[in-house]
């Protein structure tokens, strides 16, 4: 019986997966592919397809374009982590998923929900351990719990997804339930805690005297950055390299194809950026609070950047809002985006740690301070901090919110 059009379409990805599996040892995703894709006006495949149609004789152009279109699914499987194409394995993927951004974003969002759910479970388990210890303390002891992760657990979803895909030897093993099983089995210990016991002098009004008590300070720790590749996925050096290439290409795909960020090459760094950094550094240690973000003495990430640039006469807002996502829209709609490779002091760095439905899924913003450091209002640190630039795989936009004339 002849195959229907739907069956043929549905087989494109699974057939491509088989070919891609054979080619994967011969082809590398890495910088060559990512570098070539940077010039895409409509993403990696848009750039390549356009290139094939230029500077060739008519018959050669038509033949080359036809061959390239047939190769597109294979190239995508080689470039990007396969989990974004299907949660149930590539044999079950929609035949047109490689050109359907909505399906890809839904798959990424579902993977993030699985990762976040298990991390939250492990976090709650460590809090239960701490509370169990507290119940055993003497009545005259005091205690405190410092937990930077009570409100939010930040993880680089593109990197975790990429590490999982790189750890699987067969494309058929790349399924969402397989990722969930690995996380369930191997994340014990991703959260831990330290205990610091100190003597504290306490005044007793009834006896008008002082006495010493013990204070137990518990601090929750999270070791996700190295825990995932080393303990959860147990990556070899080659697999970790592949994971980083997947994450880089996925990041590039999101920027060029889904978000379609256009960099303005004419923006020149200047004194305004340096002044922004100087202002930002004066607020180190200011407490972080989303609830109190608009009150004096408190910042969240976006109210901090808004305050810095408002002192310089620049109002970072869109539609009356100054959230991180609104500031990102301000950057793109005013043609103020710059390349990550061209970051200069004062530039804004926008992060997406999750699919949150906001503009470009932006969830955090920082100010580049130069020399590989940023200044930002950190929810995990609980204050404005100066620290090394982090989370490169989660950066979706960089902007220079001023022009030099």
The helix count comes to 12
Mass-distribution shape: flat
Mean pLDDT: 82
The biggest beta sheet is recorded as: 5 strands, antiparallel
Order of helices and strands: HHHHHEHHEEHHHHHEEEEE
Biggest sheet strand order reads 7-6-5-4-8
Portion of residues within helices: 40-55%
Strand content is 15-25%
Secondary structure class reads alpha+beta
Distance between the termini: 69 Å
Radius of gyration: 25 Å
Assembly type of the chains comes to single chain
Count of strand segments = 8
Low-confidence stretches: 25-59
Describe this structure in words.
By secondary structure, this protein is of the alpha+beta class. It is 44% helix and 15% strand. The chain contains twelve helices and eight strands. The chain has helices spanning 5-23, 30-37, 44-52, 58-79, 101-135, 157-167, 176-186, 224-232, 237-258, 271-281, 301-310, 324-333, and strands at residues 142-146, 191-204, 209-222, 348-351, 364-370, 373-378, 383-388, 395-399. The strands form two sheets. A five-stranded antiparallel β-sheet has the order 7-6-5-4-8. The protein has a three-stranded mixed β-sheet with strand order 1-3-2, covered by helices on one side. A hairpin with a 4-residue loop joins strand 2 (191-204) and strand 3 (209-222). The longest helix is centred in the first third of the chain and has 35 residues, at 101-135. It is flat. The termini are far apart.
